[in-house]
Amino acid sequence: MTLAEAEDLHAALRRRFGYDGFRPGQREIMEAALAGRDALALMPTGGGKSLTYQLPATLLPGLTVVISPLIALMKDQVDRMAASGVPAAALTSAHEADERARVEREVVAGKYHLLYVAPERLVSPDFLALLDEVGRRQGVSLLAVDEAHCVSEWGHDFRPEYRQIGATRARFPQTPLLALTATATERVRDDIIEQLRLRDPLVHIASFNRPNLVYEVRQRDKGSYHELLDALREVRREESGAPAIIYCQARKTVEDLCERLNGDGVRALAYHAGLPAEERARNQDAFIRDRVTTLVATIAFGMGIAKPDVRLVVHMNTPRNLESYYQESGRAGRDGDPARCVLFYSPGDRMKAMFFIDQMEDPSQRGVALQQLNVALAWAQSDGCRRRGLLAYFGETLPGENCGACDNCLRPRERLDRTVDAQKLLSAVARTGERFGLTYVISVLRGSKAANVIERGHDQLSVYGIGRDLDAEEWRRVGRALLALGALTEVDASGQGYLTLRLTPVAWEVIRGRRRVEMAAPVAPVVRAGRDSAGETLDAEARELFERLRRARRELAEEMGVPPYVVLPDSTLRAMAVRRPDTRERFGALPGVGAAKLERFSGPFLREIAAWLDERGLPAWPEGDAPALWRPEERRAPRERRGGDRVPTWRVTLDLFRSGLGVEEIAARRGLAPSTIASHLADAIERGEDVDTSVLVPAAHARRIAEALARLGDTPLAPIKEELGEEISYAEIRFVRADLRRRG
Ligand code: ADP
Ligand code: ZN
After folding, report:
1. How far, in Å, is the centroid of ligand 2 from the Cα of 642?
2. 459-478 mean pLDDT
3. Is the pLDDT confidence value at 2 over 60?
4. Residue with CA nearest ligand 1 atom 15
């Protein structure tokens, strides 16, 4: 590829899709496809796989055929391509015969760059004849196989039809084949290369790290529901309509949880295999189109859902293996913006999963499932880095010590010697005859006066009441740790589903003082990370505009009959909310706005922005003065956003201010809105930091603001601004108010 061609690729990216740069690997893969070389692309969800054939499709002379396993995915992509002005079509069983015939005619006539088909259609004689015809005319330029892991029995989603793709490809020996997947194990990789008969392929393996996701595992108990509510509230504090998926194992739990959430004012819909197909489709659709923001589902939901802006994925149970967990939790934050993954784990999950595993007939399959389950459970219980653990499962080593974005790294837990507590609990199990469950044993330990304890005479035991120093929950944790350690096992002795604790040889080693028990210190209740950087990007003003733009987007999408993200992604709306473009030209400079979207959407959004500015009496940013935008790389820069001993954001601003930069300059340098920088400085002033306010506010303004504040009291900014008029800025009022507050 020549330099000029490389520049062409970049220019085409900008023109077609409005993106400024390539994601890691995208360029190499596209170059291979354009040069006629086979390629295998392993990229995590959200890595930007689709673009690697979409963009070449617009540059190559002939047709690009995309093999995709799911109709929903195809439809979504065709919609997206249409919104970007790329002619694309799908041939699926969902189409009526005459509709299909029309598409086929148009394909032959060369109307499309991209054609999506299901694998079973690809191998049908009719379709092959169609391809031959295309081959004789404009040619088949590229074959792209999406979700290529479906070809492998070792993947999590084997589809026998995929096996025939290799044979079809043999009919077009000159056509490069591009295989794409988000499943990375080596076995699957080798299988893809072999089954699809790739020739000397470029193999691109991206890192599977998803830096924008925060992982968190919590113990599931009675309080979990409220923790779930908190998590929902928290992601929605930043963004009121933030979409969330909650996964449950059983249909019944889906229904119950859904009902409870609705009862608590969280509008939620259910999705599971027990619902009638139409209802399922309707609920899915409502979620994808942002009509409802919470979906409670069994894991059947999500395959083939490309919704990019899911901000929270919660699992109410431990998944059966880490690969599934990676895929399911990975449905959060495909757009690269911060998102949270929370797993509620309980030792009881093991029993539930075992129930299914025991039903497997093939013993070797059962063995694999059991191993995978144990790995998943160990991961959930571990006090090591979650991200490192997940990546290790895919054979990837995470560089550095602390990932800064998982519960264990954000709140490293001290390891404490809990041998004495372990001995108390194990003795209580022994004294009560290994006939009871954890709850009962704890009630004896804590000296319960409950009738069943007294009647059994357990108040006479030496262990009665020796555990009053800890609350029941902490004892529960000790119990779980002992289960994890293998000192205790739970058995269903009666066969009635009532678990009783049994001691193992390990337990006796502990009781006899031959073995020590260490446990991580209790977890602190909340993790708040990942969101903070997103919070920084939008100040209150921009957030208000963002919400308004989201509404406008939803209306436009409803009119067009497509999901909102097909119109424009959140990242573009956020940029819009910060930059407030007031001309077509400025609109066209927003990330994610290519020529077609500029044409279609600049009008309605520019009107919306103008109306908002008008209502708020705010100006558009003067030319050249609009705040700089976040670049993903900067946004993910570890120093500022990661936990531990990070420097608070206001302090970063303060240091820059002290180095002599003005508010606008700091805003540009940090990629934040000037109003955000102003509030940082106001914060610093209030905290008593030495800030020279005379540089920030002219003396005459300061006097007037101080008077107004004295008159109106310490109110919100708007009434004061109203009182003072145009020439005094919000920022100036903030500074003076902060200064007065500091003085008391
Ligand atoms: P995958 O198929 O790998 O899960 P997608 O192709 O759906 O990922 O891309 C995820 C998101 O990233 C989409 O919203 C897409 O528009 C966006 N995207 C892809 N490539 C780029 C790029 N180079 N710059 C900015 N955004 C991109
Ligand atoms: Zn970590």
Report:
1. 11
2. 88
3. no
4. 48
Do 317 and 250 share a structural domain?
yes
Which of 14, 17, 51, 149, when mutated, tests ligand 1's pocket best, judged by the most ligand atoms within 8 Å of its CB?
A: 51
Ligand 1 pocket, mutate which of 50, 55, 326, 570 (most atoms under 8 A from CB): 50
Ligand 1 near 208 CB (within 6 A)? no
Crossing angle for the helix pair 419-431 and 472-485, nearest 10 degrees? 90
Would you say residue 512 has pLDDT above 90? yes
Query: Is 261 part of a structural domain of the chain?
Result: yes
Q: What's the start-to-end Cα distance of the chain, in Å? A: 67
Nearest CA to ligand 1 atom 17: 48
Q: Find the angle CA(690)-CA(693)-CA(698) to the nearest 5 degrees.
A: 170
Claim to verify: residue 275 and residue 219 sit in the same structural domain = yes
Q: Looking at beta carbons, which pairs linking 270-277 to residues 24 or more positions away fall under 8 Å?
A: 270/295, 270/296, 270/297, 271/295, 271/296, 271/297, 271/298, 271/300, 271/301, 272/297, 272/298, 272/300, 272/301, 273/298, 273/300
Look at the chain and report how many structural domains it folds into. Answer: 5
Nearest one of 307, 218, 126 to 526, comparing CA atoms:
218
State what percent of residues in the chain have pLDDT above 70.
Answer: 91
- The bound ligand whose nearest atom lies closest to the alpha carbon of 55 is 1
Q: Burial of 282 by CB count in 10 Å (0-12 exposed, 13-18 middle, 19+ buried)?
A: middle
CA distances to 151, 312, 512, 616, 629 from 515, rounded to whole Å, are 49, 41, 8, 68, 57
Q: Are residues 600 and 687 in the same domain?
A: no
Closest CA to 315 of 302, 329, 303: 329
Residue 357 lies in a domain: no
**Cα–Cα distance, 726 to 435 (Å, whole number):** 78
Instruction: Tell which wins on pLDDT, 453 or 347.
Output: 453
- Cα(337) to ligand 2 centroid in Å equals 18
Verify that 402 and 427 share a domain, yes or no: no
Measured from the CB, is residue 23 less than 6 Å from ligand 1? yes
Q: Is 594 in the pocket of ligand 1 (CB under 6 A)?
A: no
CA 47 to ligand 1 centroid distance, Å: 6
- Residue 64 CA to residue 142 CA, distance in Å, equals 5
> What ligand is nearest to the CA atom of residue 76?
1
Residue 524 is classified by DSSP as P
Q: Select from 466, 565, 643, 479 the least CA-distant residue to 80.
A: 565
Distance from the alpha carbon of residue 389 to the mean position of ligand 2, in angstroms? 9
The residue whose two tokens read 């998803």 is 210
Spatial separation of the C-alpha atoms in residues 48 and 204, rounded to whole Å: 13
| Tens digits of residue pLDDT in 514-566 | 999 988 776 544 444 333 333 345 777 888 899 899 989 988 898 888 889 99
Nearest CA to ligand 1 atom 18: 48
| Atom number, ligand 1, closest to the C-alpha of residue 13 | 23
Domain membership of residue 469 as a residue range: 415-520
Nearest atom (ligand 1) to Cα of 23: 23
The CATH number covering residue 453 comes to 1.10.10.10
pLDDT (mean) for 662-689: 79
CA of 334 to the centre of ligand 1 (A): 8
**Cβ of residue 683 lying under 6 Å from some atom of ligand 1:** no
Q: How far is the CA of 23 from the centre of ligand 1 (A)?
A: 8
What is the C-alpha separation between 403 and 179, in angstroms, rounded? 31
Do 419 and 513 fall within a single domain?
A: yes
> From the CB of 50, is ligand 1 less than 6 Å away?
yes
232 residue type, one letter: L
Q: Are residues 16 and 28 in the same domain?
A: yes
In this structure, the answer to whether residues 614 and 713 fall within a common structural domain is no
Which ligand lies nearest the alpha carbon of 400?
2
What is the Cα–Cα distance from 446 to 431, expressed in whole angstroms? 14
DSSP state for residue 729 in the 8-state scheme = -
Distance 403 CA to ligand 2 centre (A): 4
Q: What is the CATH number of the domain that holds 225?
A: 3.40.50.300
